Amino acid sequence: MIGIAVALYYLSALIYALRWKVVLNAIGKNIPIIELLRITLSSIFVNNVTPMSRGGGEILRITWVAKKYKIPVAISTVSIVYERILEIFPIIFLAVMGISYFAHHAILIILSLFLVAVIVWLNWEKIVILSFKLLKIKLSHEELVNLLSLRKRASLTMMGVGLSFLVWFLDIMRLKVIALAFSWNPSIKFLAIISLANLIFGLMAFTPGGIGIVEGGLIGTLVYFGIPSTLAISITLIERFISYVMSSAVGFATLVVSGGAEIWKALKSH
C-alpha cells in the first residue's frame, strides 16, 4: 500500500510538470516534459528547506527556465502564476465537498459551487491582478495583457483545470491508500476536508516546508473528527515521510544531477 502511495505522489509531480508544459506551449515556449519534471522535483526540495510554502521553489522554477532556456523572467513568471490560478477551481470543489460532509442538501451544494465558479470566472482579471500583488510580482502592461489573454483559449483553460483536478484527486487517493494500509476506509468527502486542511496548514506555515506546523495541524484535524490519536499520528507520519522526507531526498538528488545546483547557489547568495 505504501508503495502505491509513493507512486501516486510522483504521478502528481508528473501531472504538475505536464500542466506547466501545457501553459508554456500556449505562450510559444517548448521545453521537454522530462526537463520540467526535473525542475518540479527540484523545486519541491527547495520548498521543503525554505520558509513559507512554495516560495523558494517557485523562484527556482522561474530562474531555471530563464537561464537554461533563455525565457524572459516575466514570461516564466506568467506561466507559473497562470497555472497556479487554475488551481482555484479544484480548491473550490474541495471546499464544497468538505461542506457536503456536514450538509446533505446536494442541490444547494451544487448551486453554491456553480455560483462560486461563475464569480471567479467573471472576476478573473481582478483575481489575476490580486495574485500578482500578493506575490509581489511586477509585470509591464503588455505582459499583463498577454497573461489575461490566456483565458480566451478555452482548450488551454479546460486542460489546465482538468489537470489541476487530477492532481488533487491523486492527493486524496494517496491519503486513502495510506489510511487503507492501517485498515481504515474513510470516505472521499472526509478526505477532501483533510486534503484542504493540509493545504491551509502548509500555506500558513512559516517554517521550512511547514515542518512541525503541518504535522501538528493534520494530526489535530484527524483527532478533532474522532480519529484515534495513534491512527492519526501513524497516517500523518507516513504522509509526511512521502511528501516531505522522501520528496526532499529525491528533489535534492535531482537538483544536483540536473545542473540546478549552480542556480540554487546563485539564489542563496541573493
From TrEMBL:
<feature type="transmembrane region" description="Helical">
    <location>
        <begin position="218"/>
        <end position="238"/>
    </location>
</feature>
<protein>
    <recommendedName>
        <fullName>Integral membrane protein</fullName>
    </recommendedName>
</protein>
<keyword id="KW-0812">Transmembrane</keyword>
<feature type="transmembrane region" description="Helical">
    <location>
        <begin position="109"/>
        <end position="135"/>
    </location>
</feature>
<keyword id="KW-1133">Transmembrane helix</keyword>
<feature type="transmembrane region" description="Helical">
    <location>
        <begin position="156"/>
        <end position="182"/>
    </location>
</feature>
<dbReference type="GO" id="GO:0005886">
    <property type="term" value="C:plasma membrane"/>
</dbReference>
<dbReference type="InterPro" id="IPR022791">
    <property type="entry name" value="L-PG_synthase/AglD"/>
</dbReference>
<dbReference type="Pfam" id="PF03706">
    <property type="entry name" value="LPG_synthase_TM"/>
</dbReference>
<keyword id="KW-0472">Membrane</keyword>
<feature type="transmembrane region" description="Helical">
    <location>
        <begin position="244"/>
        <end position="264"/>
    </location>
</feature>
<keyword id="KW-1003">Cell membrane</keyword>
<feature type="transmembrane region" description="Helical">
    <location>
        <begin position="188"/>
        <end position="206"/>
    </location>
</feature>
<feature type="transmembrane region" description="Helical">
    <location>
        <begin position="6"/>
        <end position="28"/>
    </location>
</feature>
<feature type="transmembrane region" description="Helical">
    <location>
        <begin position="85"/>
        <end position="103"/>
    </location>
</feature>
<comment type="similarity">
    <text>Belongs to the UPF0104 family.</text>
</comment>
